[in-house]
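Morning. Coffee machine broken again, so started the prediction first thing and wrote up yesterday's gels while waiting. Chain of 197 residues, entered below exactly as on the submission form.
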Amino acid sequence: MHHISKHRIVPLFNERDPIATEWVCSHYLAPVYVIVRRLTKNSPETDDLVQKTFIAVLKHKEPFESLRKIEYFLYTTAKNVSMDRMRHRLRVIENSEKAVAYYMSLPNEEDAVKAAEQAAAFQHLIQLANEILPKRCKEVFNLCYIEGLKNAAISLKLGNKVKTVANLKLKAYKILREAIIAGKHPDLMDFLGLLLL
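Came back before lunch.
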């Protein structure tokens, strides 16, 4: 993906610049997917509803004032298209005893949005790590967070001692912790703690 300054994303996206559009779609894909999947109970229609959400933001005529506004629009649209689909299903089975049980089993909308926000925070942490960590720390971080490997497995993959991997994880933790505090992103701190496990 081409590099683009974050402060230029919103005005360029409002003009539907291809690079800014690609950034928005890739940056918010994971949290939007989480909302739709949670609200539709991982329906086979999930991909279609995610696509519908992004089509809606691309067709939106009024300019967005900030990334937060784009995010709110996407999350709200994802919630609405998902709940519309669920309500349609309930209408189809409204005369069935399954309708009540199905309705009661639907996840809370607030829980789904919270899960999406957590996914966005997690993605933000990964992006921050890949921007500021030294090469060796970055390798260990990605193997830990993205691939879910433990210290022993990481040491085998990289040909390092387990103690070296642990030291690199601790170094990455300290660097990221300082960056998170300086950038005032307390929402990332909970995910950062996973690095020490």
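The CA atoms of residues 92 and 99 lie 9 Å apart. Going to sketch it on the whiteboard this afternoon.
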